[in-house]
Amino acid sequence: MDLNTRKEMFSYAYIEAVSSVAGYSVELKPRAMDNAGIDVTIEVPGEAGGVLFPRIDAQVKCTAAENIRKENCIKFPLPVKNYKTLIYPNPYVPLILVVVLVPSDINDWLKITEEDILMKKCGYWLSLRGQSPTNNTENITVELPRQNLFTPVSLRNIMEKAGRRENL
Fold first, then answer.
1. Residue 120 placed within a domain
2. For the DUF4365 domain, which residue ranges apply (predicted)?
3. What's the CA gap between 149 and 136, in Å, rounded?
4. Tens digit of pLDDT for each residue in 3-42?
5. Residue 168 falls inside a structural domain
């Protein structure tokens, strides 16, 4: 399996781990939706934010790039195709971007002992809904605030807002 496929699979495993701790369901999308810019759907199997079964869709990226972590944000070069999907002003299901950072050495991504399972490094999330279109043709650098760690607690907050139909 090539390295990019391993990154993709690892990032999905990260989403699954965070979602399972939060108590949510994750559905990997089929190729047609992946090509349209949606990799996973996360859904609450119950109530959140005053509605039953709220859900979000996510575009998921994974990188080992070291130079993207800045003092207050992660500067990630997002393909314009994905950006155009994520900025859509009125999606039926809220959309977020999740960027998972991993060490450059694949052997450092996961450590397992009898006491611990450790996934390195972490993921960040961002809603780009309503952002301005770009004239770029290949990539646009987006800034994910470092406080936007993708964790079970942050995912629960996202789902509460999604349930109340608030902007994320």
1. yes
2. 9-162
3. 27
4. 999 999 999 999 999 999 999 999 999 999 988 899 999 9
5. no
Residue 48 falls inside a structural domain: yes
Instruction: Give CA–CA dist 153/79, Å, rounded.
Output: 28
Q: Looking at the domain assignment, is residue 91 inside a domain?
A: yes
Domain span at residue 7? 3-163
Number of domains in the chain: 1
Bridge partners of 99, per DSSP, are 61, 124
**pLDDT tens-digit series, residues 86-138:** 999 999 999 999 999 999 999 999 999 999 999 999 999 999 999 999 999 99
**CATH assignment at residue 62:** 3.40.1350.10
pLDDT at 34: 87
